[in-house]
Design brief:
2 domains; Alpha-Beta Plaits; 9 helices
Length: 264
């Protein structure tokens, strides 16, 4: 079947740099105005609207195509800033693609300017509530004072106070997590150009060592990346054993900070 659909990986305002597998990956560059569009011609069998929906349920097909999508974008980003397009962005013809650039040219230029010289970094924090709860008397003055009351009380009163402490521990763990999350996010936000709070996954989905308490993205100037990474990593080293786990990932394609809107 003829490859006549246009798969778009993204756009740059400079010619893409050296890419060893450019031809074998079937990549082409199309120039529209000041934009270099990285494309690949693909078949309707795989990427027509109907067939794409079917293929998305094929895990092996989906994984191979996503890996290719990410690989191409990462390779190009090694040499030039790029607005990455979402996986499976398809245009039926070059005329349709030209219409897109006519409608969104101003916004595309603005977005390229905003991400130039910057990198996206993702930060996630997890809290192991059990580990944190076990240390609560050393962290919370309220919990420490209540424990002293329990130790000095009669068995009956100590039992009632212990039940009260169980509720207190949950509330204190929530408070500490909230304070930790806010302090950490604010510190990284001050180092970054832009920041974004993302959806926090619930415990049923998360399989890490604890509950996710922060899921954030940051757009960082390249000359401040080392400062950012040190600031992101320091609390994890300092609070080792406290129940907090910090994950830092990057640089990533700047999906979180590209917002293409139509401007006439």
């Amino acid at each position: 079947m003829k490859n006549d659909l246009i798969y778009v990986f993204g756009i740059t305002d400079n010619p893409p740099g050296p890419y060893q597998n450019w031809e074998s990956d079937g990549l082409e560059t199309v120039l529209y105005d000041d934009f270099y569009v990285i494309i690949k011609f693909v078949s309707e069998k795989e990427f027509s609207q109907t067939n794409l929906k079917k293929n998305l349920s094929d895990i092996n097909w989906l994984e191979s195509k996503i890996v290719e999508h990410i690989r191409v974008i990462n390779k190009i980003m090694e040499h030039t800033p790029m607005i990455p397009f979402k996986f499976g962005t398809i245009y039926n013809s070059e005329n349709d693609l030209k219409k897109f650039f006519t409608a969104y040219s101003s916004s595309l230029k603005e977005n390229l300017l905003n991400i130039k010289g910057k990198e996206e970094w993702a930060v996630k924090i997890y809290c192991n509530r059990r580990i944190l709860s076990e240390q609560i008397d050393n962290i919370s003055k309220v919990a420490e004072d209540l424990e002293k009351q329990i130790m000095a009380s009669s068995p009956g009163k100590a039992y009632l106070l212990q039940r009260k402490k169980t509720e207190l521990i949950k509330a204190e763990v929530d408070r500490i997590c909230n304070e930790y999350r806010k302090s950490y996010f604010d510190d990284l936000k001050n180092i970054s150009e832009l920041s974004s709070l993302n959806l926090v996954l619930n415990e049923d989905i998360v399989s890490k060592a604890g509950t996710m308490i922060l899921n954030a993205s940051f757009l960082v100037n390249k000359d401040r990346v080392l400062t950012f990474k040190n600031a992101a990593d320091t609390p994890g080293k300092k609070d080792k054993g406290s129940g907090f786990l910090i994950e830092i990932t990057g640089p990533l394609p700047p999906y979180s900070f590209v917002n293409i809107t139509k401007k006439w």
